[in-house]
Amino acid sequence: MVKFNNDFMLGASTAAHQVEGNNTNSDYWVMENMEYTQFVEPSGSAVDHYNKYREDIKMLADAGLNTYRFSVEWARIEPEQGHFDEKEIEHYRDVIKCCREYGVEPVVTLMHFTSPMWLIKLGGWDNEQVVDLFANYARYVTEQLGNDINYICTINEANMRLQIGALMERFKKQMMAKMAASQNSANSGDGKPQETMEGQVQVGLNLSNPMERMKKAAMENARIFGDPQPHTFVSATDANGDMLVIKAHIAAKKAIKSVKPDMKVGITLSLHDCQSIEGGEDKALKEWNEEFGHYIDYIKDDDFFGLQNYTRTIYGPDGIVPVPEGTPMTLMDYEVYPEALENVIRRVHKEMPGVPIMVTENGIATSDDEQRIGFIETALSGVHNCITDGIPVIGYCHWSLIDNFEWQKGYALTFGLCAVDRSTQIRSPKPSLKYLGSHLG
Fold first, then answer.
1. Which of 355, 260, 362 is nearest to 310 (CA)?
2. How far apart are CA 78 and CA 131, in angstroms?
3. How far apart are the C-alpha atoms of 213 and 35, rounded to whole Å?
4. Given 198, 257, 284, 362, which residue has the most CB atoms within 10 angstroms?
């Protein structure tokens, strides 16, 4: 078993909407509870981390971990444009104090996919206003909480909108080809092609709804959001929308530094280990540049980089190479490949050598905790190899501390180091939690 020095930040991650519950002012809450929702179930009370955060943070610390990456919820803190809720900011102040009490370093994410409903009604993440609105929110949080934290991730997986845009283009082409081949529109909802697609992004998406239901959902969106395709953070966008996200990060970083100049500020990106077989080299390089390369000029002066990786993607001359039958797969329908993390760390460092790397997410959706333990050991061995070779990896936060709400996929996909009986909200730490903590010291 590899061991890390005690100053290495070893911990676990969560996201507010996925664990807190009853995030009623957010865009996701509205979408989950629509009649023609894409979500297989609503988040509801989630795992009640909003009330049980002290128990959960103590559990993390008792396992030997020293870092907790979590998000503060914009929709709670600013439920109406320009109105900040003092009760909610006090809640997150208490969460941070709890971390300090248990010797845990808090790493705060300002935006983890969910946005206030009012923002989406203004045009969301494709409206230029989002840059200043997000910066204003970042400034307020730093003014209120900045004295008690050292690390802020502005935006979680800032490239997710671009990834989903590319995914939806592939999805449309695949569906059109299938319909043309079969000449039978009834087959468009049978689910098989969509399952393959869903495994190509590192977020829980549900593409199994029939086309007719999607049309009705668009009508419902128009009525509720004022747009049949609302511009949430996890919706398809193009290069212009992608650039708005980067502008929002830059503006937020400036706002944070104006309040606390020594705050360490970074962004996180969802990265695949882009590999190729003969003839696929150019496609693999193109995908890597879309996922990472084109952001370098905008983030190379950040204080750290949040690296998020779960698997690899292999490219051939015709695009993504299907995973061979019999390959071990996660519940998220992508390949079990913990070796990807070391490969991606090395590549990021080679292309952006001056920036410390924090692994802000890495994990596996599985019901087999022994498999999770094996995944952790291989992933951490890769991290240790990188540090030994002089790469400045400052931390590793496993996804996720607790089994939680995996977005459109609901509660069936278990990433957690701890299980929860949602009928009682009783926590049951898995052996993997203690195993992860045993790597310090």
1. 362
2. 15
3. 10
4. 362
